[in-house]
Amino acid sequence: MRMGGTLSAPQATVGAYGKGGFYQKAGTTFTLQNNLYLGTVSNGDAYGKYEVNGANASFSAQSAYVGTYGRGSVEQTNGTVTLSSRLILGHYAGGQGTYYFNPTTTGSTTVKGTTFVGYGGSGKIYQYRNTMTYQGTVRLGNNQGAEGYYKLAGGVLQNDAAYQVVGYQGKGTVEQS
Questions:
Q1: In the predicted model, is pLDDT for residue 1 greater than 50?
Q2: Cα separations in angstroms, 153 against 4, 72, 85, 150
Q3: Quick check: pTM over 0.90?
Q4: What does the alpha-carbon distance between residue 103 and residue 110 come to, in Å, rounded to a whole number?
C-alpha cells in the first residue's frame, strides 16, 4: 500500500499454498472485518508475511492467525495494530508463527481478546522498544506439543487480564533482558 492509501476487506490470507507478503507503508490504513491468515497450509511451502512499516500506518482486524499450518510472520516497524478478538501464533501442530517488533523503532499493538503464543504449534514474540497491550489472557504453550516463547527486551508490556499462563499444557518460556 502506498502512502495515504486505505484498504478494507472482509478477510485476508497471505501465503496460503505458496509464499506471499503484504507490506503496509507509512500513512496507510488496512481494515479487515474478520481475520488475517498468514501461512495457512502445511505443504512445506506456505509462508505468509505481513509487515507494518512506517509512522501513522494502522491495521485492524478481529483476529490474526500467524502460522496456521504453515509458517507466518508479522514484522512491525512503527504503526498501530489493533485486534478486537485474538492473536494466535503457531495455531496447529506444525504451524510456526512469529511476531517481531523492529528493535530500532517504536509502534504499538493491542489485543483485546486472548493471545496464544504456541496454541498447537510453535509461536514466538520478540518485543524491544514497542508497546504491547493485552486486554485478555496470554497463554504460552497452550496445547500438548505446543511451544511458546516471549522475549521482552524493552518497551512496555501491559496485561490487563487477571492472569497469564506460561506452559499451559505445552512448553512456555519468557525471557526478559
A1: no
A2: 32, 22, 26, 10
A3: yes
A4: 18
